[in-house]
Amino acid sequence: MIMASSARGEATPVETTRPVWAGPGFVEFVALMALMMGLTAITIDSFLPAFPAIQGDFAVRDPNRLQLLVYVYMLGFGTAQLLYGPVSDGTGRRPALMVGIGIYLAGTVLAMLAPSFEVLLLARAIQGIGGAAGRVLAVAIVRDRYEGRDMARVMSFCMMVFLIVPILAPSMGGAILLGGSWRLIFGAMLALALVTLAWFGTRLPETLHPAFRRPVSVRAIGSGVAVTVGTRTSLGYATALGLTTGCIMAYVGSAQAIFDTGLYHLGPLFPVAFALIAGAMGVATLINARLVRRLGMRRLAHMGTVGLFAVACLQLVLMLAYGGRPPVWVLIATLSACQFLMSFAMPNFNALAMEPLAAIAGTASSFIGFYTTLLAAFCGLLVGQSFDGTVTPLAVGYCALSGLALATVLWTERGRLFGAGAR
C-alpha cells in the first residue's frame, strides 16, 4: 500500500504494490542522480575562468555584465522547472528528461557558435531551460524510490557527489583554456550531456508508479501547486532553501571578480580558492548523509541554519573590520565555514519540503524548483551586482539571507527548533 495525497493534501491509501526494482544498484543510482543534478553545476562553474576571455572577445565594457551569463541561465533553469514535473507526472520521468537533455544540447551547440555576447546570453537561457529537467526529475525520481530519512540520506549522497563538481569544474575550464578557446568548454558540456543521456536511457527504468499518473492539464497543475503552497512544511522549507541557495548564487556570481579580476588577482590560483570553499560543502554533505538517520532531518537542518547565521554575522564583522578587503585566507576560511554549515541545511530542506507530497512528486518538485531557483537567482543577482571592489556586499548578503532563512524555519516550525521526535 502506498500513501498518496488527496486534492486537499491529505494522505490517503492507494491499494497498490511497488513493482520489483529492475534498475541500477544504490551506488550507481546515486551517481546517476548526482550527474543529472551536477550538469547544472558544471554548466555554471566550468566557464567562470573564461570570463576575461569572453569579455575580450565580445568587447564587454562592464565586467559586472558577465555575471548575466550565470543569472540568465538560472532564469531559464528556474522558469522551465514549472513544466517538467507536471509533464513527467503524466507521461513518465523518462520522456520528460529526454526532451530536456535535447534542449540542453541545442543551447550548448548555439553557445559554441555564438557570434556575439547577446547570442551567448540566449544560448545560456536555452541551456537553462534544458538543464532544468535534470534538477526536477532527479528529485522526483528519488522521491519515487525513497521516503523519510532514507530519502534524505540519498539526497545527501547525491549532493555530496554533486558538490564535488564545483571543486573540479573551474580547474577543468581553466585547463581547457590553456589549450584553446573558451568555446571548447561548451564542447565539454556537450560531451557530458551525451554521456548523461546514454547512461539514463540504457540503465534507469521508469520510476513513476502507474497509480500516481496525473493528467497533464492546467487544472491538474494548479491543483498540485495549490497542495504544495498550502502545505506549511513544504512552502516554509522551500523558502528557506531558496534563501540559502541565494547565498551560493551570490558567491558564484561574485567569485571570479573577487578572487581574480577585481580584488585578489589570484589568476591560475582562482580554481584552487574555489575548490577549497566547495570542498567544505562536500565534506559536510558526507557527514550529513551519515548522521541523518540517527538525528533526523529537522535537527540537522536547524543546526545548520542557526550555525550559518552565527558564522555569517561573524564574517560580516570581520569584513567590516578589514574595510571590505581582508587577507584572502580570512575570506576563504569564513566562506568555507558558511558553506560547511549550509550543507547541513540544504539537502534536508529539500527532503523536508518534498516529504508530504509523494502523490504529486513531479509537480511539487517542479514548483519547488521553480520557486527556489528564482528566489535564489534574484537574491544572488541583487548581491552580485552590488560588487564594489570589496567583499562587504557579499558578507552583508550572507548575513541577511541566512537570517531570513532562520526566521522562515522558525515560522514553519511555529517557533520550535530541534524537536526531540522530529524526523
Brief rundown of the structure:
The chain is mostly helical and 423 residues long.
Descriptive overview:
It holds the Pfam family MFS_1. The chain crosses the membrane at residues 26-48, 68-84, 96-115, 121-142, 154-178, 184-204, 235-259, 265-288, 300-322, 328-345, 357-383, 395-413. Its main location: membrane. With 423 residues, the protein is mostly helical. It has one domain: MFS general substrate transporter like domains (Growth Hormone, Chain: A, Up-down Bundle). Helices cover 76% and strands 2% of the residues. It is built from 14 helices and two strands. The chain has helices spanning 26-45, 51-58, 68-91, 93-113, 117-145, 148-179, 183-203, 218-230, 232-261, 270-295, 297-321, 328-354, 361-384, 392-412, and strands at 2-5, 11-14. The chain has a two-stranded antiparallel sheet with strand order 1-2. Strand 1 (2-5) and strand 2 form a beta hairpin. Helix 10 packs antiparallel against helix 11 (297-321). It is globular and about 55 Å long. 55% of the residues are buried. Mean pLDDT is 86; it is low at 1-16.
How would the blueprint of this fold be written?
Layout: E1 2-5, E2 11-14, H1 26-45, H2 51-58, H3 68-91, H4 93-113, H5 117-145, H6 148-179, H7 183-203, H8 218-230, H9 232-261, H10 270-295, H11 297-321, H12 328-354, H13 361-384, H14 392-412
Antiparallel strand pairs: 1-2
Helix pairs in contact: 1-5, 1-6, 1-7, 3-4, 3-5, 3-13, 4-5, 4-7, 5-13, 6-10, 6-12, 8-13, 9-12, 9-13, 9-14, 10-11, 10-12, 11-12, 11-14, 13-14
Subcellular location: Membrane
Transmembrane segments: 26-48, 68-84, 96-115, 121-142, 154-178, 184-204, 235-259, 265-288, 300-322, 328-345, 357-383, 395-413
Domain Major facilitator superfamily (MFS) profile: 26-415
